[in-house]
Each structure stands twice: as structure tokens, then as C-alpha cells.
Amino acid sequence: xxxxxxxxxxxxxxxxxxxxxxxxxxxxxxxxxxxxxxxxxxxxxxxxxxxxxxxxxxxxxxxxxxxxxxxxxxxxxxxxxxxxxxxxxxxxxxxxxxxxxxxxxxxxxxxxxxxxxxxxxxxxxxxxxxxxxxxxxxxxxxxxxxxxxxxxxxxxxxxxxxxxxxxxxxxxxxxxxxxxxxxxxxxxxxxxxxxxxxxxxxxxxxxxxxxxxxxxxxxxxxx
Length: 223
Fold this sequence. Notes:
Blueprint: H1 2-31, E1 37-41, H2 45-55, H3 68-75, E2 81-89, E3 93-100, E4 103-109, E5 112-117, E6 122-123, E7 134-136, H4 141-153, E8 161-166, E9 172-176, E10 181-183, H5 190-200, E11 210-212, E12 220-222
Parallel strand pairs: 1-3, 4-7, 7-8, 10-11
Antiparallel strand pairs: 2-3, 4-5, 5-6, 8-9, 9-10, 11-12
């Protein structure tokens, strides 16, 4: 009787091993497949294909073991990208969701025209094909981004700006599309710009060509 029980236990034990092996094999096949498809969302067809082409070597990798650092290094080469998210869709698909940087202005750098993106990077191509303010002078990108942020937080319409002038003293002038030039103080805040907006919208000053705000508590107007 004891021998029969022992045999049954052995049979169940071997069955358990076989079933576990089959289950583990299925798990291995589903989780450890090579990457078969790479999808990029949020870019035009040309930029999308460039990134997919740069990432195609990942198709030799097992999706389960793929480290995102490899993808991040490639994505960060592209100046047009602001943010991105990486998704692994099992068993074998990689999906990258991309948010483009916004182009804010253009400037000359090393004798070439570059576009400044909201991500702080310079791009050679105006992929948005839109008219942008031109920066004269040589500000650091961070200096421009801080100034631009103050502008958009005020009542001033950034789309009405034709060009920006940066001086070594770290002061800015603005030229609007209606050809009014605004000389700003070294420290520009939201209140200063809102006061400027009030002047610009006052019909009494419609023939003014220069607004000088460089001296504290003074507004100098020149027609």
C-alpha cells in the first residue's frame, strides 16, 4: 500500500515538473521575444522615419531586457523634441510618444541662422514654418528663455514682436511689427510689461515710434 502511494506521489511530481516547464516556456516565449516593431508618435513622417532608422538596431534586443537608456541617448540627439515617453507593448512592440519643442525665435550662431526651441536647444530647421522674432546680439539661450517667459506671462502679445535686441549689459530692446521700438530697463518684470501694454493700447500715443522705459518711474516717448 505504501509503495502505491509513493508511486502516485512520484507520478504527480513529474507531471507538475512537466506542466511547470511548459508554462515557463510559454512565459519565456511571450516575454523574451526580440523587438519586432518600433512606432514613433507625434512627429511628421520624415522625422519619424529618421528616429525609427536610428533605433532599428534594437530589433536585435529582447524587449524584456531592453534598457531605456539606449533609447534615451538616441532621442536626445534630436533638437526638435521637448518630451517623450517610452512604452513596451508585449510581446514585441516598442512605442515612443513624442512632444515637439516649440520654436520661439531665431538668431545667428557661428555665422548660421538657428532656431531656439522651448527645450533650450538650437535647431537648424524651422520645422513649424512660422514667422519668428529675430534676436540681435548674443544672449545665452537661458537668458532668452527667461526673458521670453516673462513676456508671455504679461499682457504683451509675443506674436506682435518683430525682433529682439540683446546688449552686453544684459538689457533688452523690443521692436514690434508696427515698428515701435521699446527700450526696456535691465530688470524686466510682469508689471513693467503690463504698463507697456497700457501705453501701446492708448490712442493718444498711436504716432509714437520709441518708448523708453530704462529710467525708473519715467516713461520717455519719441515720435
